[in-house]
Amino acid sequence: MTADPSAADLIAARPHLPMHAMDGLLLEGVPLNAIADALGTPVWVYGAGTMRARYRRLAAALAGLDAHIHYAVKANDHLAVLRVFGQAGAGADVVSEGEMRRAMAAGIAPARIVFSGVGKTAHELRAALENGLAQINVESPAELEMLSAIAAATGRTAEIVLRINPDVDAGTHAKITTGRADNKFGIPYAEAAALYRHAAGLPGIAPVGLALHIGSQILSLAPYHAAYARAAELVRALRAAGLAVSRVDCGGGLGIGYGDEAGASPEAFAGALSRAFAGLGVSLIVEPGRWLVGPAGVLLASVVLVKGHGRFVVLDAAMNDLVRPAMYDAWHGIVPVSAVDARAAGVAVDIVGPVCETGDTFARSRLLAPLREGARVAILDAGAYGAVMSSTYNARPLAPIALVDGERWATIRERQSHAALWEGETMPDFLG
Ligand code: LLP
């Protein structure tokens, strides 16, 4: 991205966000102003139709392969979102007992849930076995021994894949790169074959394949080609050594266009899977999160005030709501909800939140129409790693969430009350 795309360009490139001359910006068929009028701001709005359409496009791209989509719950774990993907046919990829229980509560069968994560506790592994999850992605020798002991003690057999670290740079932000040798994830490539053989002899363990996930917001196919080639090579080596391998979990990571850059193409991604694994006779799992849900959500906010002779536009949303700009210097489109403002010529402003940190900045030197107090803006592509990463820092209650589905919408989370902020806190007797 060279120059920032204009509000008009951002909106034009997102057909699920039509601009109406009178009603302003819509998500699918619902005016965002109607939701903000009802729930106030800040408020998250997700589009179920958009999620379904994206799921269908990915499923169609993978149709020629023996590939199964396990939505990465961490990207957006709201029960209604999980229900939308579950109904569309997705399984789930979870990384904690909490995510496992959320997925099951939303109606995703345990047999369609895989469990990833670098530090699963004994308690979590036991819960995964007791609930009959489909697969556990083992990331270390210590986890393997722990799982074997728990499975054997309870008379169960755990189907596992070994997560390998292919030592491939995904070419993304350092904080979301996971497949390099110096990242904490997976089993070093050179040690994986010996561990797989060892696993095959352990009580309670049935190794069925490999897993890998090299990072997130990946926009180029090259790292996928490199990583999947290494995985395929290991499948061949394991089989040559007489070990059975029937599955490869290829992880997620497909990026989206936050500005005017093109997002990852699911069709091209399917091509990369096919190039690496066709002919091996393995079934594949993919674990996309961001690509499915990111573009389907916005964070609506209102202008509280403008200060610094027009330089700082202070919103009522903050880094505690959407932390991605503060945490990863992430770029999110920010557009006025009013059609007149979205068309108007912009002036360069810093768009900030009210939290007491300079890092609470959504955008620097961004062209935005001059906005008055109370004017609303939509922060785009906030469906993934948005509400799930919110905190209540500065004692700011969690924002409400609305789900749009075509012309319909419903509140799917109420605004947190102030009293709820200290629910569960207790005052020790000695303080009187
Ligand atoms: N599978 C595994 C094992 C993962 O660790 C992740 C994401 C995914 C799948 C899904 O990746 P996706 O398709 O969404 O890229 N909070 C960061 C992103 C962290 C991603 C962590 N792992 C952000 O806001 O950019």
Q: SSE layout and pairings?
A:
Elements: H1 7-12, E1 19-20, E2 24-27, E3 30-31, H2 32-39, E4 43-47, H3 48-61, E5 67-72, H4 79-88, E6 91-94, H5 97-105, E7 113-115, H6 122-130, E8 135-138, H7 141-153, E9 158-165, E10 187-188, H8 189-200, E11 205-211, H9 222-240, E12 247-249, H10 266-277, E13 283-286, H11 290-293, E14 297-307, E15 312-315, H12 324-328, E16 334-336, H13 339-343, E17 347-352, E18 361-368, E19 376-379, E20 401-405, E21 408-413, H14 418-421
Parallel strand pairs: 4-20, 5-6, 5-13, 6-7, 7-8, 8-9, 9-10, 9-11, 11-12, 12-13, 15-17
Antiparallel strand pairs: 1-2, 2-3, 4-14, 14-15, 14-19, 16-19, 17-18, 20-21
Bound molecules: ligand LLP.
Q: What do we call the CATH topology of the largest domain?
A: TIM Barrel
| CATH top level assignment of the largest domain | Alpha Beta
Number of strands: 21
CATH architecture grouping of the largest domain: Alpha-Beta Barrel
Summed over residues and divided by their number, the pLDDT gives a mean of 97
Q: Report Rg.
A: 23 Å
Q: Strand fraction band?
A: 15-25%
Low-pLDDT runs of 5+ residues are none
Per CATH, the superfamily of the largest domain is Alanine racemase
Q: State the major sheet.
A: 9 strands, mixed
